[in-house]
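Good morning,

Attaching, inline, the backbone tokens for the sequence recovery test we're adding to the shared suite. The designed sequence is right after.
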């Protein structure tokens, strides 16, 4: 019975309330929606907002983003920006050190670590950089900001 309890506890989904802010430079008012995030070891994250209409999913090396009915899919084995992003998220989820890399910058302030991933290549991407703020003691994700071209961004704040 103890083994069954440990297995169920280990695989239980940790659901966290999340707020999503979508900022577009050309639009004066940001779009704010709420939802929840599910994080499972070793490398699964699902963030669902706006009543399930918008979703960001990392399942292993595959990333799927659904916004306004449009689905974007990439694999970190083929996309260098997402390869770094995947390595960082996997390290955070598993309470491991953040991997070193030319495109990864880690700064600490108080009990927070800010991890900025900026690709060095000129390849046209949907996002220009990712900024992840993590509680350095618990490895809890506090914020995820995905910067796009022309000063637009999508930011998730985890409660």
């Amino acid at each position: 019975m103890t083994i069954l309890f440990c297995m169920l506890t280990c695989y239980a989904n940790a659901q966290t309330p999340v707020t999503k802010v979508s900022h577009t430079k050309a639009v004066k008012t940001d779009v704010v929606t709420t939802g929840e995030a599910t994080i499972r070891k070793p490398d699964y994250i699902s963030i669902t907002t706006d009543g399930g209409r918008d979703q960001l999913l990392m399942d292993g090396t595959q990333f799927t983003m659904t916004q306004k009915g449009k689905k974007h899919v990439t694999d970190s084995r083929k996309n260098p920006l997402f390869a770094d992003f995947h390595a960082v998220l996997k390290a955070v989820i598993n309470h491991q050190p953040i991997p070193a890399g030319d495109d990864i910058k880690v700064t600490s302030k108080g009990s927070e670590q800010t991890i900025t991933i900026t690709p060095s290549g000129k390849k046209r991407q949907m996002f220009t950089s990712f900024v992840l703020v993590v509680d350095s003691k618990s490895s809890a994700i506090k914020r995820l900001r995905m910067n796009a071209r022309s000063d637009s961004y999508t930011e998730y704040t985890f409660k």
